[in-house]
Amino acid sequence: MKTLSHYLNGQLTTGQNQRYAPVYNPATGEQSAQVALASADETRDAVRIADEAFVTWSKTSPLKRSRILFKFKALVEEHTDELARLISSEHGKVFSDAKGEVTRGLEVVEFACGIPHLQKGEHSMNVGSGVDSYSMMQPLGVCAGISPFNFPAMVPMWMFPIALACGNTFVMKPSEKDPSTPLRLAELLSEAGLPDGVFNVLNGDKEAVDVLLTDECVQAVSFVGSTSIAEYIYATASAHGKRVQALGGAKNHMVIMPDADLDQAVGALMGAAYGSAGERCMAISVAVPVGEETANRLREKLVAELDKLTVGPGLVDGPDNDMGPLITREHRDKVAGYIQSGVDEGAELVVDGRQITIDGAGDGYFIGGTLFDHVTPDMRIHSEEIFGPVLAMARVASFDDAVSMINAHEYGNGTAIFTRDGDAARQYCEQIQVGMVGVNVPIPVPMAFHSFGGWKRSLFGPLHMHGPDGVRFYTRMKTITQRWPSGIREETNHFTMPTM
């Protein structure tokens, strides 16, 4: 059995804890490896390694840091297919989707390569007579990242490229369900010239996480995952004096107005609801058609498209499937439980993905595309994040009803409206209480030079991921006010507040 461990101080290391978690191929249900789970002591050792490396790395010029990231970018591009195969084999998403994930992560690396400009600070001359002020954006120290299973390449690359570019060192704690991709990224960083100890990958569970949240050397924690864990991460790390960005769950709605291009909306919904088997925090999981005629036409078109949806392994000889398996047997069963909950609470199950069979898939963790209609806000399939290929249709009578329903939800991660009416789109963007909004764009994930983050219980902490907020998160502002006296030094004591 292959054993995956940690990447510390520039090399793969063997775990000493003798605790392991299984790693499965979701397409077959077979165990492909085991991953070592770090102990509290091993985690503290990883933090110390990063802390020692910070002394030198923080003094490395931004230009040199940028050049290492440029080399890393080139290496990731060279190894994109390899990384995508690792993602598909452990997560289950189809190969083309896995390549897209690597590309979106690379966009953050490209943004971080501009750190000589992004970290310049500000300067003002003569704020007083002969007095100048300027600011410096200095690195924090050791930063930690805790990432989820659904994007083993992209989400870590939301975090560490900017942190490293700003002069911090990093301890990455990826999901133990698909750990191979972050380990490979660490090797490529070393190949690009990153000094030993600057970036470390530590595999583990809550025992390791709790050390990262409380160790005095860790200055900042970035997290993406469920809301319950995000809230715990934020509360615990903040209580120990760390700055935190913790991205939680989501329930993303797409409003379809009567004037929308319905073919365009249906095509967008299929990809946004069922791509990556719905295991995306930005997946559209609720379609909100305005008016009965819009709803009936939307349902008819969705059923026809679902009949053509191809579901199967993420890695195949020939054209990709549209959708792969879920990550684990437990998660598949949880999603199946949500489908049954929808039936029990009175929603109309239009297409039941539990009935799917995949030839040659063994015990793979598959659920087909599922569609509910006549879903109401009091149902669990509307109120809770399912994280699977389940789309709920929640019919409303008016634009105002759609806005009210979405604003009443506890999550505020992403949303979209499909319409030809500029006034409706403008009102929606102004009134909706959601952090990321798409107009005729189903998954409004910002590009890397903007920042990613939701509202309400989808985000804990004031700063979003990557973009300008990412640079602010991974730096600490220091402002210097200086004057160089000319002529004879004054000997008079000054006891008043200095003014112009």
UniProtKB/TrEMBL annotation:
GO molecular function, one term: oxidoreductase activity
Keyword Repeat belongs to the record: no
E.C. numbers: 1.2.1.27
Keyword terms: NAD, Oxidoreductase
Gene3D superfamilies in the record: Aldehyde Dehydrogenase, Chain A, domain 1, Aldehyde Dehydrogenase, Chain A, domain 2
Residues in Aldehyde dehydrogenase domain copies: 16-480
Enzyme class at the top of the EC tree: oxidoreductase
InterPro entries: Ald_DH/histidinol_DH (IPR016161), Ald_DH_C (IPR016163), Ald_DH_CS_CYS (IPR016160), Ald_DH_N (IPR016162), Aldehyde_DH_dom (IPR015590), MeMal-semiAld_DH (IPR010061)
Highest taxon of source: Bacteria
Record-linked PANTHER family: MALONATE-SEMIALDEHYDE DEHYDROGENASE
Protein's name according to its UniProt entry: methylmalonate-semialdehyde dehydrogenase (CoA acylating)
